Every structure is written in structure tokens, then in C-alpha cells.
Write a sequence for this structure.
């Protein structure tokens, strides 16, 4: 890293197993794992703008360079963001023109305090979970999602600005018809993903909760006939036409779908404790990792940012057990490990890594 957030210049070689990043609050632990996340998706883990990733007192831009070793291949990702926030990305020394070319090179599953929004916040957080995971596993999904979002933006613009145009209905129908193919593809892929994810998440939740809790996942969408998706979508838009015109935005579609998360027959989006919500999110994340393994034959990199708070010792032990054989980056203010596992400790102080230890 060069001039990335709090780091002026930093180099590190993590282990292929557990990496424990220890430091006081504000020392730069999250900034360290943020660089790994950004190299995967060219997006901030915390929603920061590209320009805001540049160290505030530096001149010029910021750079992240990461070398990746997979089972059958090696890659180098090199990202430079100039002082105006414009980014340039190279993969194996070759520049890319589309973000889609980066997706899937370095697969990431992350958990941070913000990820609790996956359970307790709005449906957009749960759709984001689906979209990030599916985009990494399937580049075609990423491109269809990109297309759908652009068409949705166009449709909303027509609803807002072209209502009095003589060709309003013609424009709207044209855009709506264009949305059907990509929307059908996204629906099918989301359904397949949830069918794969749900039993895995239920099993992971049993392990993390010590068998005391039962997790259920339900995908909430419009009344879609999966044997005839396009006709279902057409009917849905037809019924919503007057409402869309009155409100001046699109009120139906996959951008309004949600996942219902139930633990022991209780909707924990509203009524779950902090510990239950964290356990549910972790269960989804570990299940997501299993879907990566089933799809690609390799686990993604796991980022656990400040995950130990709010977990009792039993759940912590279950958590560490689940990280075996997975490259993991765990941030914390202090780390006490009662097991005999080996791990690498990266100690962060004064805005840089002062000490790296291999601990047996």
C-alpha cells in the first residue's frame, strides 16, 4: 500500500491461514483489511468514495498492489487512484477497461460491524449480500445486474420527466421490455443461490449456536411463476402502471426483493438480540464461503473485522473452528487464543505494522 488511508507506505506478507491484526482503536486495523477488500471489488468495504481512500496529507494518489496465489494460478492486482479519484486497474501487468474483468480474481467474504445491517437494516443490505456474492461467482450475473440497474434508472427518469410526452407510454414499454431478459436471469440465479445457501446456513448456525437455535431463510419476491417468468413480470408491470405513474418511480421488480431471516420462529430482523444477529450473519457468511468452494473448488479470503465483540466464548470457539484451512484476516484490540493452532500476528502501531510474529 502507498498513501492508502492512514498508511504512507506498507508491505506485508500474510500467512495462508489465520492472520490476527491487533491494535488499538483507530490504529488502522480496518484500513488494512479495507485494502484487501478494495482489490477484490474496486469498491470500499465501508462505502467510502475512491478519492477518500487517499491519505489526507499526501501528494498525489494512492496505490494498492496484491499478489494472489491460487491452487493452479497466480495473479497480481495493481490499482492506482489519482488525486481526482480516477482509478486505473491492471491485472498481471495488463490494464483492464471494465470492472467486470476484475471480479472473481480475488474472491472475498467479509464481516464487520456494518454487516449487521444484513439482518437488522433495510432490504437493500440483504440484496447487496446476494449481489456481491453472485457477482464474484458469476461474471454474467454482474453484467446483467449492471444492465438492469441502468435500465431501472432510465425507467425512473422517464416516469419523472416524460409523463406529458406523447410518446411516454412507448418509451416506458420499450425500457420495461428491455428489463425482462436481465431480470429473468437475475431471478433464476438468486433462486438457485438461495436454494444452495439455505441448508448450508442452517447447518452453520447450528454449529455456531451450539445446536440451541434453528435458522430459516425465505426469499421474498413478487408472485412469480418460475415456469413463465417473463409473463409474470409483464403482468406485474401492467398492474403497477398507474401507481408508477403517480409516484414517478418503479414500484415493482427485483430491486425490491428481500430475505426473511427467522431464528426459533422469531423474525430476528426486528426482535433478535445483538448476539443472535451476529451469529445469523456469520452463519450466512460461512455458508457463502461453502458456495464459493462448491462453485470454484477454492475458498475465498475471509475478513473478520471486529467480530469477537458480542460473541460468548462458546461461539468464539466455534468461529475459530470454522476458519480452519481458510485464509482469514481477523482484526481485534486484543487476542487471547486458548487453542494450539498456529497463526500470524500483525501488530499495528503508529500507523504502520511494527511487528509480525508467527505464533505456534
Amino acid at each position: 500500500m502507498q498513501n492508502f488511508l492512514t498508511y504512507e507506505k506498507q508491505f506485508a506478507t500474510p500467512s495462508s491461514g489465520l492472520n490476527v491484526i491487533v491494535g488499538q482503536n483507530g490504529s488502522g486495523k480496518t484500513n488494512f483489511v479495507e485494502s484487501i477488500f478494495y482489490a477484490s471489488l474496486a469498491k470500499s468495504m465501508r462505502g467510502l468514495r475512491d478519492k477518500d481512500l487517499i491519505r489526507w496529507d499526501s501528494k498525489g494518489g494512492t496505490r494498492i498492489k496484491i499478489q494472489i496465489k491460487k491452487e493452479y494460478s497466480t495473479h497480481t492486482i495493481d490499482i492506482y487512484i489519482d488525486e481526482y479519484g480516477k482509478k486505473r486497474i491492471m491485472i498481471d501487468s495488463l490494464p483492464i477497461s471494465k470492472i467486470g474483468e476484475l471480479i472473481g480474481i480475488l474472491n472475498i467474504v467479509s464481516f464487520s460491524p456494518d454487516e449487521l445491517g444484513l439482518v437488522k437494516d433495510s432490504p437493500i443490505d440483504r440484496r447487496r449480500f446476494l449481489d456481491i456474492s453472485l457477482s464474484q461467482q458469476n461474471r454474467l450475473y454482474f453484467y446483467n445486474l449492471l444492465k438492469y440497474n441502468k435500465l431501472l434508472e432510465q425507467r425512473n427518469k422517464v416516469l419523472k420527466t416524460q409523463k406529458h410526452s406523447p410518446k411516454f407510454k412507448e418509451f416506458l414499454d420499450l425500457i420495461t421490455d428491455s428489463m425482462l431478459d436481465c431480470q429473468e436471469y437475475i431471478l433464476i440465479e438468486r433462486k438457485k443461490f438461495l436454494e444452495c445457501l439455505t441448508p448450508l446456513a442452517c447447518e452453520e448456525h447450528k454449529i455456531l449456536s451450539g445446536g440451541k437455535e434453528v435458522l430459516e431463510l425465505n426469499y421474498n419476491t413478487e408472485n412469480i411463476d418460475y415456469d413463465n417468468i417473463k409473463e409474470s413480470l409483464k403482468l406485474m408491470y401492467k398492474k403497477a402502471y398507474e401507481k408508477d405513474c403517480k409516484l414517478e418511480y418503479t414500484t415493482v421488480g427485483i430491486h425490491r426483493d428481500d430475505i426473511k431471516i427467522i431464528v426459533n420462529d422469531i423474525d430476528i430482523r426486528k426482535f433478535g438480540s445483538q448476539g443472535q444477529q451476529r451469529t445469523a450473519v456469520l452463519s450466512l457468511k460461512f455458508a457463502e464461503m461453502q458456495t464459493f468452494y462448491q462453485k470454484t473448488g477454492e475458498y475465498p479470503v475471509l475478513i473478520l473485522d471486529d467480530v469477537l465483540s458480542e460473541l460468548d466464548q462458546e461461539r468464539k470457539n466455534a468461529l475459530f473452528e470454522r476458519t480452519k484451512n481458510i485464509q482469514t484476516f481477523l482484526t481485534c484490540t486484543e487476542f487471547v487464543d486458548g487453542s494450539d493452532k498456529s497463526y500470524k500476528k500483525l501488530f499495528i502501531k503508529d500507523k504502520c505494522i511494527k511487528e509480525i510474529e508467527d505464533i505456534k
Summary: The first helix runs from residue 29 to 41. Residues 119 and 264 are 15 Å apart (CA to CA). The domain at 110-297 is CATH 1.20.1050.90 (Glutathione S-transferase Yfyf (Class Pi); Chain A, domain 2).
